[in-house]
Design goal:
The structure is a single chain. The protein has 27 helices and 31 strands. It is an alpha/beta fold and 936 residues long. The protein starts with 27 loop residues before the first helix and ends with a helix. It is found in: Cytoplasm. This is Isoleucine--tRNA ligase.
């Protein structure tokens, strides 16, 4: 006799459904700030430092962001990646101290303060320098504080109270001391050579402060009349040059040719109406470039009198195209190995004050270097006829003067990539000015030592090695002087009698001591020269240098005032920045440290790409495609941003936007649901339930094998001594895949039945909970470096200790015995065959034959090796069916069959045994046993 439907017992209370206070919804924008408060109250960073004493150190030295404006998405990428690496190294057993820092001096801040002056009608030059510097310091302090809070909101852990800044007095003192080392070892010198110069900002710029944009330049073909040459037929002919900088013509002092280039001596016999060339002109032009020049200059019929090698021009002299207009000197015709036939005429006009090749050739042959251009980009009196005209507006006047002189061959315009200041966005010029340089090759051999240091450095990706190496190999001497006010002055005195810098260690020491207590402002105070020169020298006999040092020198010397003074090891284990820093911070840090210590300040360099929008475009306000980290944390939470970073290949450019963030939120939801199910299924779990590894079923041992594989990948990336150190790409996508595919869609799916319906003390249920306990501990630890807030929440949901934190733990120990490659291979095949079965079940479900796989008892026909993988009960359990049969076949094939019997009211399996129990007629025998055990 069975219960009537009205009398049927409700067994829902006997099913062990997951229970946890850990919510399905992350609600991260609200929960994360509370977690930050908890960590601060807990003194988490201080506790980590305390408990890590005696461990091997790991130091990622922070490349300082610029204290100017709110953080952008590139900042978030950079700091999150650093934070993940630091946290992972800490959990891998290292003492991973991290001192965040800021770059606070330099032109961008001056520019902002000057903008405020201009808006109020004030003249910056009328403001006392110490007052101006104080305003710059206040501006930098404000933005440093803003950025610090924004970094902390992203979950970035570090020694925020003891952060460093280049404008700290101790930092300024150390920077002055580093300059002093170059002064004393002879590497620092003052020289005249061309540098990138901003006429708007009135200062020299470093290569790293330059960006290239399309620019329309006027072009010029000019004629240089040959005055003397070894071959008589060349005298009276005109060498034709082509330039995209007509304004450099007043600075011309030579013409360069290629010794092996074929040049045509042509006689002009016809021209177009608009041509500036005259019939009868004899012109010298490179033969490969002649057709293009003919078209440009409007030349018609002509005769090539002969073709000659450039070497024939050795020793020739020519007239300046403005001869008779204040330029009545001879122009030397010289060989130049940089001359090509890629464009132009095969001849290059040489203005030694306005180009690197020009300057080097001029120095080789002793050419004069006239100072034709002022700081503001206007011509000086050394440019007769053009004084006061701005170089970017000078082409018209130069055209007219040359037209009058009869030396203008053609004019045009060209759109090309041209250097601009990244601050003012205005074009720059090459300009020879007296500047302070650090020699790359003389005496100290900084170039050779730097190249050797690059060879000894570990690069991620390795392509960075060649990039920075080629830059160092080709770079000129390092120009470290800037003509500005907000920075660390170059604390040098120059003898007015000899013109040589004063190399006196006592002066450097006095400067450093003063800067420690007063900051670099001490250099600008009344009486500074007498104070630092000391009582034995007359200040009137010395020039006090008022240039400030290049901010790249400052940031390049951060190792000197961040690492040893804080007891951190030198060199640092890792420098990590964007790929543009091969020419920026990595570069300047390398040169500075090699120059003062003889070694690189880093053991490894990791570079990441830039952040683009979803279409791969650069972000800009005008396009409306900017993703601000502040908005992401407000809408989604910092953990979503952190997950985006670690789900990306950071060695390449990354993309972000609304759709990508939605995808990351979905990936996060799956990971969170995995944690939630683990927590719910571990309710009331105690160590007494634990099953020894040797007694665990195969399925559980397979999960533990997968744990060893993931653990190995994480440890390899986290351990700074491993062969795969810092190789994080793909690690967290694999963890997500483990959660979504191996666990949720496979292991959890199979084990739900045992966890929900087995009696509490069954081996199968206890085994599953033993593994769930391991999974919870490992996943919380593995996720802690990335999902720092969520991992903590999931840890505390199970271990609610007021003093506890997952971030105080190391990665859990994984026994070597868990690794079982043979078992892994077996279960890979089981899953393949399971896929055949579930495919048939899905067809039946789609057809409406069944609603649940538990209504099925499918069969699998397969070769003996496949059939023997599991017994029929094992196949039914793995395929989540109520029955299963196996049969012999040459190739595997699955087929559907309905399960015979009645549905169990508790576990929902369809079995013939349901109804046999008198006490529980709606249950299967397993459920009857479980209910009785619970009741007992």
């Amino acid at each position: 006799m069975t219960d009537s439907p009205a009398e049927a017992r409700d067994y829902r209370s006997t099913v062990f459904l997951p229970k946890t206070p850990f919510p399905m919804k992350g609600d991260l924008p609200k929960r994360e700030p509370a977690m930050l408060e908890r960590w601060a109250k807990l003194g988490l960073w201080e506790r980590l430092r305390s408990q890590s004493k005696g461990r091997e150190t790991f130091v990622l030295h922070d490349g300082p962001p610029y204290a100017n404006g709110n953080l952008h998405i590139g900042h978030a990428l950079n700091k999150i990646l650093k934070d993940v690496i630091n946290r992972a190294a800490q959990m891998a057993g290292y003492d991973a101290n991290y001192v965040p820092g800021w770059d606070c001096h330099g032109l961008p801040i001056e520019w902002k303060v000057e903008e405020e002056y201009r808006s109020k009608g004030r003249d910056k030059d009328a403001v006392p320098v110490l007052d101006f510097r104080a305003e710059c310091r206040a501006y930098a302090t404000h933005w440093l504080d803003v950025q610090r809070e924004e970094f902390k909101r992203l979950g970035v852990a570090g020694d925020w109270p003891d952060r460093y800044a280049t404008m700290d007095f101790a930092s300024e003192a150390a920077i002055a001391g580093e300059i002093g080392k170059f002064l004393m070892n002879g590497s620092l010198y003052r020289g005249l050579r061309p540098v990138m110069w901003s006429p708007v900002e009135k200062t020299a710029l470093a290569e790293a402060e330059i960006e290239y944009h399309d620019h329309v330049s006027p072009t010029l073909h000019a004629k240089f009349r040959v005055l003397s040459a070894k071959a008589e037929d060349l005298v009276g002919a005109d060498i034709v040059i082509w330039t995209t900088t007509p304004w450099t013509m007043p600075g011309n002092r030579a013409v360069a040719y290629g010794e092996e280039i074929d040049y045509a001596l042509l006689h002009v016999e016809g021209v177009t109406e608009t041509s500036l060339v005259k019939v009868g002109d004899r012109l010298l032009v490179a033969l490969p470039l002649l057709p293009a020049f003919e078209k440009e200059a409007g030349i018609g019929p002509h005769t090539i009198k002969r073709v000659l090698k450039g070497a024939e021009l050795e020793g020739a002299l020519a007239a300046h195209p403005l001869r008779g207009y204040g330029y009545d000197f001879d122009v030397r015709v010289l060989p130049g190995d940089f001359v090509t036939t890629d464009a132009g005429t095969g001849f290059v006009h040489i203005a030694p004050g306005h180009g690197e090749d020009d300057f080097n050739l001029g120095r080789q042959y002793g050419l004069p270097i006239p100072e034709t251009v002022n700081d503001d980009g206007t011509f000086t009196q050394h440019a007769p006829g053009f004084a006061g005209i701005h170089v970017f507006k000078a082409h018209t006047a130069i055209y007219e003067a040359m037209r009058a002189a009869g030396t203008l061959a053609a004019t045009s315009k060209i759109t090309h990539s041209y250097p601009h200041s990244w601050r003012s966005k205005k074009p720059v010029i090459f300009r020879a000015t007296p500047q302070w340089f650090i020699a790359m090759d003389d005496g100290n051999e900084i170039r050779a030592k730097s190249l050797a240091a690059i060879d000894a450095t570990y690069f991620v990706p390795d392509a960075g090695r060649n990039r920075i190496g080629s830059m160092v190999a080709a770079r000129p001497d390092w120009c470290i002087s800037r003509q500005r006010a907000w920075g660390v002055p170059i604390p040098v005195f120059v003898s007015k009698q000899s013109g040589e810098p004063l190399r006196d260690l006592a002066i450097i020491e006095r400067v450093v001591e003063a800067f420690k207590t007063e900051g670099a402002d001490a250099w600008y105070k009344p009486g500074a020269a007498a104070r630092f020169l000391g009582p034995d020298r007359d200040p009137k006999l010395y020039e006090q240098v008022m240039d400030i040092v290049d901010v790249w020198f400052e940031s390049g010397s951060t190792h000197a005032f961040v690492l040893p003074p804080r007891g951190l090891p030198f060199p640092a284990d890792l420098y990590l920045e964007g790929s543009d820093q091969h020419r920026g911070w990595f570069h300047s840090s390398l040169l500075e440290s090699v120059g003062t210590n003889g070694v690189a300040p880093f053991k490894a360099i990791l570079t990441h790409g830039f952040v683009l929008d979803e279409q791969g475009r650069k972000m800009s306000k005008s396009l409306g495609n900017v993703t601000a980290p502040q908005e992401v944390t407000k809408q989604y939470g910092a953990d979503i941003l952190r997950l985006w970073v670690m789900n990306s290949d950071t060695t390449l450019d990354l993309r972000i936007g609304p759709e990508i963030l939605k995808q990351q939120a979905e990936l996060y939801r799956r990971i969170r649901n995995t944690l939630r199910w683990l927590l719910g299924s571990l309710e009331n779990f105690t160590d007494a339930e634990t099953v020894p590894y040797s007694e665990l079923p195969e399925l559980e041992r397979w999960v533990l094998h997968r744990v060893t594989e993931l653990d190995a990948k994480i440890r390899a990336a986290a351990d700074p001594t491993s062969a795969d150190r810092f190789a994080w790409t793909g690690v967290y996508p694999e963890i997500h895949n483990f959660c979504a595919t191996d666990l949720s869609a496979f292991y959890f799916d199979i084990r739900k039945d045992a966890l929900y319906c087995d009696r509490p003390d069954s081996l199968r249920r206890r085994s599953a909970r033993t593994v769930l306990d391991i999974l919870h501990r490992h996943l919380c630890a593995w996720l802690a470096p990335v999902l720092s807030f969520t991992a903590e929440e999931a840890w505390l949901a199970r271990f609610p200790d007021e003093e506890g934190s997952v971030h105080l733990l190391d990665f859990p120990f994984v026994p070597e015995g868990w690794k079982d490659e043979a078992l892994a291979a077996k279960w890979t095949r089981v899953r393949e065959l399971r896929g055949l079965v579930t495919g048939e079940l899905e067809k039946a479900r789609t057809a409406g034959t069944i609603g649940s796989s538990l209504q099925a008892a499918p069969s699998l026909a397969a070769p003996e090796a496949d059939r023997a993988l599991l017994d029929e009960a094992g196949w039914a359990e793995t395929c989540i069916t109520s029955g299963f049969t196996v049969a012999d076949a040459e190739a595997p094939v699955a087929s559907f069959a309905p399960a015979p019997g009645t549905k169990c009211a508790r576990c929902w399996r369809v079995l013939p045994e349901v109804g046999r129990s008198a006490a529980h007629p709606t249950l299967c025998l397993r459920c009857e046993d479980a209910v009785e055990a619970i009741g007992a």
